[in-house]
Amino acid sequence: MNDIIYPTLDLFLYDLRDGLGENIGEIADNQEGFARKIPEQVRSLMKQRDVEVEAEYVELLGYRGRERFDSSSQKYALKGYYYPVRIGDSYGLLLDCSVEHSLGHPELTKIEACPVNCLADLKAELDGRLSEPSSTIGQVWMVSGQIPDFTPEKAEAIAQACCQVPELELDWNRDLRGKSEFMGGMLFDLWRYRFKGLNNALGSDSISIFNIQQLQDNHHVIIAFYPDSRIAREASEFNFDWLRLFAYRSKIIWAYGQSQYLRKKLKDDFIAIQKSIRDFNQAQARRLNLKKLRQTLVDAQNTLSNYSINLKYLNTQKRTIEVNLLNYRRRLDRIQQRLTNFQAASVLECLKQFGDDVERRYLLQVQSDYENFSPGLSLLENLINSVRGVTEIDQSERDRNFQEIIAVAGVGLAAGALAASSAEQFPGMSEPKEVVKYPIGSTLAQWGVPDSWLPPTILATVSLGMTIIFALLTALLIKLSWLFRKL
Fold first, then answer.
1. Whether the predicted pLDDT of 67 surpasses 60
2. Residues whose CB is less than 8 angstroms from the CB of residue 53 and which lie 6 or more positions away in sequence, other chains included
3. What is the pLDDT, as a whole number, of residue 306?
4. How far is CA 178 from CA 93, 155, 184, 194, 338, in A?
5. Which of 242, 270, 294 is the last residue of a domain?
6. DSSP class of 165
7. Local structure of residue 277 (DSSP, 8 states)
8. Number of independent structural domains in the chain
9. Of 341, 363, 386, the domain-final residue
10. Per-residue pLDDT tens over the stretch 424-455
11. For 16-45, b where at least 16 C-beta lie within 10 A, e where not — what string?
């Protein structure tokens, strides 16, 4: 028979309290979001105790403070409690629910053997009590209870039967990561993890993904069975250790999911950087288009801003994994030490294996990503400096040419005006019959210019001629000066 005495389902749920760069308003929104997960009558107490800027561990309902509840399903009388805490920059919630007895049989409280499908009732009860069931960091489920006529083989068989309960969403062959002795009983670790990718993330332009479920499929369930009520009662004292241990574990997976999100963003930017470099190199081989180069400069500067921020965030996620891995291993060592106090030494190899996997796989992946993408900053800075240098040189060349044109035109016009003013002083310049005596006047008269128009036409011709002559001489002198400078 796949029966469990006093079956219990615990949910260890974690939310972000104050993320990197969040302001007071955003922190208040995070607090309000977590408060909605606990009963309304204790929310004010929780907020009163959630005031410390730096806090390692705060019990938000007082010392071992719990908000208890009684409920029932169609078959069973249920009992449980809320236990909210603050762990550093995060919130943690232990939501516990147990089958007291089947309806109509209070005399069987805590001694009745219930079939494994009662876990569906417990799961439905916990889900119904969360107005916001999703967590922003992660969550872990724990199934526990006593097994009549306990043997390790029987515990494993019933654990496999638990995986047949659809509400638990488990597959024994796929999800089992390991098993260990624990407090004279057996502990089974079932976990599956898959990074979904950016296509499944809402608001993919934002660096902060507050609902990690958008990025990854992370389903973790611990199943623990014990031989008698005394051992089960002593094992329940480890819930406070589990709450911290799973917090560190969830934060590691959360940070890894964030790092993979950042990795995809950095990869896209790195591709854009390489394309900009190719376009710039091709532009140098052809006639430069100043407008396009300026747009390349603007795009590169925008990419540099996003790239550097994302790279810094990636390094932050790496450090988050390192710190929480250290805390995870320390907490696991403390659990081991506490087990010796109960004279129930256990290796807990399946839980240690997670730390080893993080170090060998997840942390190494993030470190490798950070090292691979770091050169992108140098490439971007070099590209920006090169484009800026070329555009500045090109602009200075255009400015110099413009100044030369102004100088040539200015000298020519000044010379023309001076010549016209001087010519106007010549004798007879106001008399048409006199001006034909001058070579220019006779030539213009031969070209059919009327006598009345000869004086102004002569002045205009002299002015234009001198303008052209002095403009050409000025341009020649400028060119010669540039040639001498280059020698």
1. yes
2. none
3. 83
4. 25, 14, 17, 18, 21
5. 242
6. -
7. H
8. 3
9. 386
10. 555 555 565 555 556 665 665 655 656 565 56
11. bbbbeebeeeebeebbebbbebbeeebbeb
